[in-house]
Amino acid sequence: MEFDLPKTVALFAVLIAVGVGALIAAPMMRPGTVLMMVLPSMLVFGAICLAIGVKHGEYRAGRY
């Protein structure tokens, strides 16, 4: 499977939505806490990890 920008964004959004949905469904935290604190931190951390992964992939592809 070849990833391009639309596929990457869609998979990223689905992954975040599943994680947030599971946290809202679980009786650990109130939904307001999940949406105001956990969701933004998941988005930022995911975006940072995605950017690092893309750059590492570009580095690896350029070396071989």
Any idea what the radius of gyration is?
Answer: 15 Å
Mean pLDDT over the residues: 91
By DSSP, the count of extended strands is 0
The tally of structural domains comes to: 1
Low-confidence stretches: none
Largest sheet: none
Helix coverage percent: over 70%
| Count of helix runs | 2
Shape summary? elongated
* Secondary-structure class: mainly alpha
Order of helices and strands: HH
Distance between the termini: 20 Å
Strand content: under 5%
Topology:
Blueprint: H1 5-25, H2 31-63
Give a quick rundown of the structure.
With 64 residues, this protein is mainly α. Helices cover 84% and strands 0% of the residues.
In words, what does this structure look like?
- The chain has 64 residues and is an all-alpha fold.
- The protein has one domain.
- It is built from 2 helices and no strands.
- It has helices at residues 5-25, 31-63.
- Helix 1 (5-25) packs antiparallel against helix 2.
- The radius of gyration is 15 Å and the shape is elongated.
- The mean pLDDT is 91.
Comma- or semicolon-separated keywords:
2 helices
